[in-house]
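Recall that a protein's primary structure is simply its ordered list of amino acids. Everything else, from secondary elements to tertiary packing, is in principle encoded there. The following example makes that idea concrete.
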Amino acid sequence: MSRLPWLDPYDDTQPFPHPDHALVEPDGLLAVGGNLSPRRLLSAYRNGIFPWYSPGQPILWWSPDPRTVLFTDRIKISRSLRKTINKGLFTVTLNRAFAQVIRQCGAPRSQQPSGTWITPAMARAYLRLHELGHAHSLESWHAGELVGGLYGVAVGRVFYGESMFSRMSDASKVALVTLCQQLERWRFPFIDCQLHTQHLTNLGAEDIPRPLFLDLLRRFCYLPGPPATWRLDADLPRITASA
């Protein structure tokens, strides 16, 4: 990490290095240190940068190439997911349980028994962004119980997905479909998914070159977003056509 710029933890106006200076290995590592203030985080997102680090590490800032995005009008709905949606198993809400969603996203999982990258400091930082109206969650409920969801950050007309969880099959996928439907209405062209995973690819996410991603940010981050109080439209379409 000696080659990487260190950010001043007391100066959240210090600019980030340009993403072109990110390391090739590990892919996208750009800077170290700084803090997780709202100003610092929003500056990072506008510049195609996000924090990702493990407990005990300094804050690490990343801008990988390529970048994984999900265009809101291209989400893939499998036959089984279509059936789940049509059965109406889940009630999806927006910003009803942000703290619970981020807590569940950070809980240990079977494939990650030691926990996830969502440190207590990260959770507090995104809760603050939520209080300021920048971070949002979608929740999937079944029989009154929170069984899945996701959260992320909105800047202009770009939604930056951070994490998702499921305690019941397809619960987070239904939340993601709902999010894409609503964002498409609000003229958000894509969701930043950050890193490639097969799970996201199966849902329609695709990799694009970092320069193209940065160009999209310049086009859409500075456009006016939806109303300050986010609400799901009551008439969002149900998925009824056959697969």
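The chain has a mean pLDDT of 93. The chain has seven helices and eleven strands.
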